[in-house]
Amino acid sequence: LEAQGRDDIARRGHLILSLSGEALLYGANMSLRADPLPLHESYGEMAGHDSERPMSELDFNSPAAKILQRVEGLRQEKEELQRQLEERDHRLRDLQEKLERLELENERQRFPGRVLTSDVEADCLREQLRECGVELPRERDRRVGGSPSILRPPKTLEDLSREVEMGLSRLTFVGNQAVRHVDLLQVRILCIIHGKSYCLSERDRFDVATGHRRNARGLLRKKLQKGQSWQDGMQAAFKYLIGLHGAWQAVHLSVDEAGCTISEPEEQQGSGYPGMQTLVRLHEVTVRIADVLAAGEKEREAFRAIGLPLLNDFVTFEASEGRQRLHIWSWANDAQEHVQKLKSFEHYLGSCGVDYALFGTGSMKSLDQLMAEVYQNRECTLDEIPQTSGESGVELLRTVSLVQVSLVVEVFRQRRILTSSEQYLDDGRRRKISQLMVHKKRAGEAWQDALRRGLQERLGVSPAIQQACFRWEEDAVEYAETVKWSQGFPIRTQYKVWTISVSVIDTSSPHLADLGLPAGNSFVSREGKLGPGRRGRLHVWCWTPMEGDDVLLDHSLFEGTGYEELCRSLREAEHLVMQTSQHAEVSELGLEAPLQQSLKSIRSSIKKVVNFDTEATKIDISKMIRRSTHQHPAIAQFIASNFTRNCPAVTPTGPRMARLNSFSYSSEPGSSNEPTAGGSPMETADEVMRKNIGNLDFDFFECTPVSQSVLECYGEVALRTLCKHALHCGMDACSRFLGRVQKLYYENPYHNAIHATQVCHGGSWLAKHAGLSTKQTSLERASFVIAALCHDVKHFGRTNAFCVTTQHALAVLYNDLKVLENMHAATCFSALQADEEGTVLDRLNPAEKVAFRGQIVELILSTDMTEHFSAISKSRVRREAPDFNLENAPDRLFLAQMCLKGGDICHSALPWKIHKEWSSRVATEFFMQGEEERRLGLPMSPLCDRETIGNLGKSQRGFLDFVCLPLFEELAAFGEQHLRKLASLAEALGSTSPRLKTENLLQEHAVKQLRANGMRWIEDTEDVDALVQLLGVTQ
């Protein structure tokens, strides 16, 4: 370098070049010029390289090259040593965690603390406490009386002795006063997720031994043992209460020791030891969790155990200090400023004589809710007033302004008022109330604005709809003031109430359908956001008859029914009793009071009968199910989860479906329609289908496969005339469509192409005997057949609930609503339109296409079983309505939906052999779902676990009695109504044709066979046991 004139680098400096070409300078007094030495020049000179030779011919035997090789070797040795050290640290941490787990397990097996072993010892302590006015029961006395109560049990003498022996508290006796001293550690655990701070709090606590539940709603707290530092107590709390081992704590937790505060001993209320003073010294510590999102895969398992990073609630089991408890923890958004304000607010309440220890206990609201009402929502004020007891000092008076709304509507010529019957709070608690809509008025807010805001927040009615549909008189507003103790806070409260009567002037508005109008049905509304800590709630509303208002029932709505007769009889009885009570001799005979009581009872009954929607909701269906001796709990859970409102795409490997062109068919013995298979043993598919198209008991499992599928064959027979008269297309287009549908059905045990054919066949039979098919247009009949054949297309053997639980792509696509049904409808129209040679829709005009699509979509979506019972209830009301007429398109569509729902479960009304085969297949498909749920670690759906299903016969009987039978009886009622109309028509025409004097096959055949199948599940034990053995069910 000196030879080159490079004197800018000090002579005492040494230049070493790494193999990567980076320059490393070592030595003292080194400096570089602004224009550093080009690396490629110095590299060649140091390595003895001629600049005219290529770099690949570098001489590695030069001194510089040897230095580089030595440096590289040392670097590799250093990396190897670091790797070995890291492996050793990992092994040490694993061993330490195993050791702590063993210690934890040993702690759970050990019963710490000393119990009073002798009556002498116990009597001495009891007498000493009695002298101080403290009376504690013995543990053996508390246990007398059977099972433990769900209420918090009283503390016993043994509890106090155990606490003292373990060092969790100490007793002192000052004169005639027993004082209990406790050191309590309170830890605030914080974590940062996406820039927001969240705090861990205990939401609930369950004592395993007593069954007592304590609504904790607080930070992590633990009593410190005698001589135990808060650092050791904190580690023990993390270990036993949350399950975080010491090694994990050391790596991922940082403790703010400088911010630890220790308060002076203060008296604590509600310690569980009546008559004993308890002094608590509180140690408050803040702990922060390291960056959760930057953790490795191994550390994430531990984070997931405490609900991170998704901020899920989690449960831990505590087995220490002589007790076993379950703790439920939740993460909530934390703000240190909010905490300080809460402490200051608590101190302020205490200085004004408010017992803040009562907040959050029993039915009392939390301190945080009161502070939010005062400062955040401005829904109340706290005023200092002289104490009412006459003592010196002040007390607080809470002032709340309320707007009470009397929302009145006329339903069936009777005035009804809106009342709230129930509320469901964000923590799952249910409150039974019966009051008008009440809303809090904010400070400085006019009652008109509070009214509009209340209608919007409580009922979801926007101001624009309020202006269009509601009216109220500002001159008729009533105002009143009362002072009493609040039910939610331990503070005397002054209530200022504005009562406003609001009338609904447009009950037919579609915007009020969510309010149960115009029928006056009960409904549910949501206020705020639901979820833990969000303070949202659900309101259950009822339209109840107004007190003192004359009931004007519209009897024409229920003309000819038992309901109308009952209402008329009650009216007549009311009139008769009222006239009798006014007779002059009644008072002399002493009958005035009994008659008045009877009149009151009759009027009460009239109001309940008129408001039958509300009364019907009080019927406890679950009790009806439990009272049935043939019912099993599994079917009750199944009905609740699949037939009421409250899945990977796989191809199942079930039995292969029959593909056929000819049938070898034999009829079921005892069939009411006496089906025949034809004279020859091998008939063409077309002949057999046409011969049995009107036979409900046709057995599709008796088909011998040859070439064409059963769905294609049946569809061609059912659509042959409809293609010409309704769709105006040729059979070639129809056959291609049916072939595509056939291929789109998976080979599931139950939801396959044979099931679709069976549903189409059964639904068409029901539509015929319910009087629907003769009223349908040809386009409606075509849409019914196509909807039935496609109602389960591409079904993959899993339920809607499974798709929602697993967040299947279809559930995400359809927002968890009618997931499979929406997919079936969409797939149906994809198959209808996917034909380059011409589709069945090509010759329909635009209006016909719209009507055709609307019919199919409505029919397929109606097969959602969560609407099963509501559809039956609507059907009963609609069938008895005076304006019900199958000449109207909406009524035809409604009955078509009912028939398709009946066809979907029509196997329950088929002969035993066919019904048993379908039942076996659906059970097999349920078990396949259960096995996948077990693999995915999901809770097992009802009736999907072959090991816990219980009595299969009773479960099937319950399904037939409580799901299938009500639907078929309702369809039979439509059939009876249809036959009555035919008889009336025949009588008017003077016809005596025997064709008009037929029996109701829906009742005499379908319902009768369904009942027989239900009995057979109980009585035919041999057949049922064979099926149980075949399915591998654990009875």
Describe this structure in words.
About 12% of the residues have low confidence. The chain is an alpha+beta fold and 1035 residues long. It starts with 13 loop residues before the first strand and ends with a helix.
Q: Please identify the structural class as seen in this structure.
A: alpha+beta
Low-confidence stretches: 9-58, 108-117, 143-152, 550-557, 620-631, 646-682
Number of strands: 25
Shape call:
globular
Q: Sheet with the most strands?
A: 11 strands, mixed
- Proportion of residues in helical segments: 40-55%
Could you give the topology of this structure?
Layout: E1 14-17, E2 23-26, H1 39-46, H2 63-109, H3 119-130, H4 139-142, H5 157-165, E3 170-174, E4 177-193, E5 196-207, E6 213-214, E7 220-223, H6 230-242, H7 246-252, E8 253-255, E9 261-262, E10 266-267, E11 277-289, H8 297-305, E12 314-320, E13 323-333, H9 336-351, H10 367-376, E14 380-386, E15 394-411, E16 414-424, E17 430-435, E18 437-441, H11 447-459, H12 463-469, E19 470-472, E20 478-485, E21 492-504, E22 523-527, E23 537-545, H13 562-581, H14 584-589, H15 592-610, H16 612-616, H17 621-627, H18 633-642, E24 662-663, E25 683-684, H19 685-691, H20 710-725, H21 731-744, H22 753-769, H23 778-790, H24 800-805, H25 809-813, H26 819-833, H27 846-861, H28 868-879, H29 889-904, H30 912-936, H31 952-989, H32 1001-1019, H33 1021-1031
Parallel strand pairs: 4-11, 15-21
Antiparallel strand pairs: 1-2, 3-4, 4-5, 4-7, 5-6, 5-13, 8-11, 9-11, 10-11, 12-13, 14-15, 15-16, 15-18, 16-17, 16-23, 19-21, 20-21, 22-23, 24-25
